[in-house]
Amino acid sequence: MTLDQLEALIAVVEGGGLKGASTILNKTQPSISAGLKNLESELEIQLFDRKGYRIKLTEAGNKIFNHAKEVLQKRDNICTTATELKQGVEPNLKIAVDYLSPYTDIFELLCNFTHKHENTDFEFSFEVLGGAEDKVLNEGFDIALTPFISKHAKLVSKKLCELTVLPVGKKSVFQKERPDPSIFGSRPQIVVRDSSKNSPEIDFSGDFNFRWLTVSDHMIKREMILSGMGWGMLEYSSIKKELELGELIELDIQSTKRKELSLYMIRPSDKDPGPVLSEFWETLISSFN
Fold first, then answer.
1. How far apart are CA 12 and CA 14, in angstroms?
2. Are residues 87 and 279 in contact, defined by beta-carbon separation less than 8 angstroms?
3. Spatial distance between the Cα atoms of 28 and 19, rounded to a whole number of angstroms
4. 273, 267 contact by CB (below 8 A)
5. Is 234 helix (H, G, I), strand (E, B) or coil?
C-alpha cells in the first residue's frame, strides 16, 4: 500500500470517477485504475462496484476511504509541522499566569490562540504573588502575566491594564459593609500562599489582629469566600457577577482597603522570542489596549 494509491482512491471518489481523478492527479486513467486494482489485490477486498456507468464505493470501500483520508491528513500535518519548525516556530511554549489576572478574558484569548497554533504545545502554570516572575527568571518559562514584577535586568516588561483588588465577604454572613469586629474571630481572612521563593513587598493582610486561613491558590480562596468560610482580597473581574447579584459585598475595613495594581507581561531579555511568542506578545497588547 502506498500514499499514491490512497490519493488515487480519494481522487476517484471526490472527482466522481476515473476521469475526474485523472484531472485532479494529472495522471492517465489506466494508471489510476491499475493502482486501485493493485490496492484491492493487496487488501483482498473489493473497494469499488464497477457494474454501473460510474464506479462507486462498496460498503467496505467506504470504510477504507475514510481511513485513507485520515492517513493523508496526518501526512499533511507532518509536512506542515516540519515546515513550521524549519521556520523557527517553537515546538512548545511555557506561560505563567498570576491568579489575580482577569482570567475570564485571558482564558478566551488563550483558547483562540492555542487553537490557531496546533503545532505548538503549551504549558501553563498558575502562580501567586512572585511565582509567575520566578518561573520566567529561574524555570525557563517564556512569558508571564503578573502584577508583581521587580526591576530585574533580565526581564522585558509591558503594562497591559489596571486591576482592582478589594476585600469582600459573603453578604449573608457579614450582613453589612462595615461588620462588627467580633465576627472576625469566627470568620478568618483567607490568604494565599506565595508560590515564589522570594516574596514581593506587598501586603494583603492589613494590620488588624485577624485570624488567617492559608490556601494554595485564588480559585480555592474564591470558593471558600463564596461559601462564607471567611473573607479576603479578590480581583474585581473575578467576582463582578457576585457583587452585582449581592452575594458578595465589599467590606469597609480600616486596615485593609482596595488596592489598584498594574498587570504586566514579562519575558526574558536574554532570549529572542520565536514567531509564536512574538505573535502572542502582540496579541496581548492589542487585546488589552
1. 6
2. no
3. 9
4. yes
5. strand
Instruction: Give the predicted TM-score (pTM) of the model.
Output: 0.67
CB 105 within 8 A of CB 76: no
Number of H helices, E strands in the chain: 10, 11
Based on its alpha-carbon atoms, the radius of gyration of the chain, rounded to whole angstroms, reads 30
Q: At what angle do helices 218-227 and 236-245 cross, to 10 degrees?
A: 10
- Domains defined for the chain, CATH in brackets: 3-86 (1.10.10.10), 92-160+263-288 (3.40.190.10), 163-260 (3.40.190.10)
Any idea which residue has 486561613 for its cell?
Answer: 213
Report d(CA 27, CA 11) in Å as an integer: 11
C-alpha cell at 48: 469499488
CB 47 within 8 A of CB 58: yes
At residue 256 the predicted structure's pLDDT band, cuts being 50, 70 and 90, is: confident
**What's the rounded mean pLDDT across residues 138-162?**
90
Q: What are phi and psi of 191, to 5 degrees?
A: -120, 155
pLDDT over 50 at 207, yes or no: no
